[in-house]
Amino acid sequence: MSPDEIGAVRRHIEAAFERSGVQQSPFPHVVISEIFPDAVFAEITRLNPFRDSPGAEWLPREASSNVSARTPYHARKQIDLRAAEVSDVSSAVGAFWRGLRECFLADHWFTRLVVVKYPDYFRLRFGDLVGENDFYELMQTELFLQRHEAGFRIGPHTDLPTRIFTCIFSFAELDGFEEYGTQLLAHKDRLVRCWGADHHSEGDFVVRKVVPYRPNGFLLFFKTRHSFHAVAPISEHVPNQRYGMQFQFHEPVGGIFRDLSVPDLMDFPRRPPAPV
User: Is 63 a residue whose pLDDT tops 80?
Assistant: First the structure.
């Protein structure tokens, strides 16, 4: 992608953000359709790198069995767009994804766009630090492609305490598989919250909204103690195995602040999985 093409993609996304609003229930989130220009989305589906590479397991099978709710992390495959192997690819596939990586990450453009969209969230969480010149360098960003093999599912959770916001880009090629999108949930007990170290039983929650898995869709949600979300089991019939992209913005491990409280709420251990 040339600098002019990157600029055109950014202007399209900025306009899409301008037209959208932050929805507050069941937790703060933004949903956008046609997040990319049509021609760019056509390239995203045509140059799907999973056709040439299986991707890396999110967690090995044995490690997946040792987390709460026994989420089959091994069935989620990822391609890290910041990794050296992507940078070294000389094909058209590599060139395209290097350009899209530049679009999102250079000068912290995308993160700055999110901060402008919902400044109150960042001010409440970080105070004046969000206005400091080094705010973005103090945090960490992830950008990766993902696919989910048949049988993948993930139970209700709010993400780790260090997470700030998550973006899920839906790269479905066809309509008709909307139910495999991200479920936004609420606990049946209105007084239940979670700092984010565990996954929980689906039976304790109600689905308030499903942000559909459809072509060129987008979901942004902010980390709170009630940002419960999940994904239903993936069917073998889902085209391209729920192909998509994630952008994650978070504090480093242990959190950015030196917390004077005990225990440190950014450093909660996970509960051991229940016996089967």
Answer: no
